[in-house]
Amino acid sequence: MSEALRRERPIFRERPIGDRSLTRIVATLGPASSSLAVIDALIRAGVSIFRLNLSHGSLEQHGKTLAAIRSVEASTGLITAVLADLPGPKIRVGQAPVEGIDLRVGQLVRIAPGTVCVLGAEPLLACTYAGVVEDAAPGHRVLIDDGAIRLLVTDQRDGELLCTTMTGGTVRTGKGINLPDSRVRADPITARDLEGAAFAASQDIDFVGMSFVQDPVDIRRMRDVLASASAAAGRPGPPQIVAKIERPQAIERIGEIVLAADAIMVARGDLGVEMDLAKVPVLQKRVLATARAAGKPTIVATQMLQSMVDVPVPTRAEVSDVANAILDGCDAVMLSGETAVGKWPIVTVETMVRIAREAEAHLSETAAPTAPPERLVRERDRVAAIAHGASRAARDLGVVRVVAWSQTGVTALLLSRYGFSVPVTAASTDLLALRRTRILRGVEPILVETPPASFLDFISELERQLLDHALVKAGDLVLLVSGERFGVGSPSAMIALREIGDLSGGSGEGQGRPEG
Fold it and tell me: What angle (nearest 5°) sits at the alpha carbon of residue 181, between those of residues 176 and 183?
């Protein structure tokens, strides 16, 4: 695939619309958005990553959607990443009568592992999780259908939980069950997850979303699964892991989980059911701050523009929610049902771009200089030091764009950690590495044919390409950064300031000298 793309497109273009945002946008594909035409329009509207929700549909269907994404990527020249979201050990109600089971406040209810619910004065709710009776205890809450129905466990008897209905409603087949007070011991990697992971690792997929993570060991196990499946399929490397923060146990170990994962998603749907809703905004800030300190990219997800499933205009509260996630420092914001089944998928993405640009403009005007991620300071990373210097130079000198040679994507990652208010263009010959930069705030990828022979060649070649694609104009100041060696004997970390159109070969004494 990548060889064909290189022959057809010597360079992948950035989105040719001037109103793109620095914040990345993740869009879930579904019945409303899986056609070639809609995928094309969504990419042009501002989508960087498409999400395949493996909780729904068959792997065969997802394979066809993936092929459609790659077809549009090849025809437009716009690099696009794909996230396969694994279902995880979702606990659900078993088979209920078609009309459902009506529960009233104060009614006694029994819960037991099984497949079929039973009506009666004390109805029996079948639960798909075999360990439900062992994990829950008297005093624990049982929430059904995202908390719409609430039960309180009063006793454990004869392999059943005895519960009292605190909030009534109609229980239907397949509704989710949450145990917010219980330490659920269900394996976070289910048989269905293993199938999805094998599919993702053997295909052209860049990220895997791991659901209901509770422990860094979970992530390491999934990394081994992906590595084995990728090697068996002869792929160049396994997908990166996005750990979804959905449970109180994950919050308790968030520092360790952040270090183990490649990226973090604040999945506010289940998190808002498992924990007090009032705590979710503060937890979002805490998780984002922890990831920022570790230098890891982040996604904020769930109901960001939920009303746009049905109408073309969001609520004021939703607009504020998206903006505040960006002000909190996330790399990406995610759309779920809005683009998967909504009536206005393209308008929704365009709306999110507009909100993001306004929030980014405010950050540019008011934000204090971004401190280096604490982990990188401790590790005394040389490229991180170059990235920090580049962020200060860009701000002080008024550059319009930062351009990085980032063959593996690491330099792009480090640059993205410093909150540039201008785009960061990452150049590489490695398409896989560039796709993985699509999660990074402000980073736009460029695929080139061959690596430059020297830093000066890199400067002249990238200037030509930027001009060819109208990404800069004569007189603009551009900061050029390299965190990787170009040839034997060349420095491994360099930075230079370039005025576009300056034929003297540079601007300022000491151009291109290595850091350190």
Answer: 85
Query: Is residue 480 included in any domain, yes or no?
Result: yes
Looking at the fold, whether 250 and 357 belong to one and the same domain comes out as yes
- At 102 the three-state DSSP class reads strand
Binned at pLDDT 50, 70 and 90, residue 1 comes out as very low
pLDDT tens sequence across 218-274: 999 999 999 999 999 999 899 999 999 998 889 999 999 999 999 999 999 888 888
* Interval 314-332: pLDDT, tens: 999 999 999 999 999 999 9
Q: Which helix (H) or strand (E) holds 133?
A: helix 132-135
| Short-list 88, 91, 86, 90, CA closest to 53 | 86
- The candidate with the shortest Cα–Cα distance to 262, out of 244, 245, 242, is 242
Both 61 and 130 in one domain: the answer is: no
Q: At what angle do helices 345-366 and 316-327 cross, to 10 degrees?
A: 50
CA torsion angle 194 197 199 200 (round to 10): 180
User: 144 and 17 share a domain?
Assistant: no
What does the alpha-carbon distance between residue 114 and residue 188 come to, in Å, rounded to a whole number? 20
320, 335, 362 — which closes off a domain?
362
Residues 402 and 449 in one domain: yes
Is the pTM for the entire model greater than 0.70? yes
DSSP assignment string, 237-259? SPPEEEEEE-SHHHHHTHHHHHH
In a domain, 412, yes or no: yes
Give the strand pairing for 101-103 and 169-171: antiparallel
| Residue 241 belongs to a domain | yes
Range of 495's domain? 374-499
Virtual CA dihedral for 223, 268, 312, 86, nearest 10 degrees?
A: 30
Q: What is the largest CA-CA distance in the chain?
A: 88
What are the backbone dihedrals phi and psi of residue 162, each rounded to the nearest 5 degrees, phi first?
Answer: -100, 125
Q: Are residues 128 and 255 in the same domain?
A: no
Instruction: Examine the domain organization and report whether 397 and 423 are in the same domain.
Output: yes
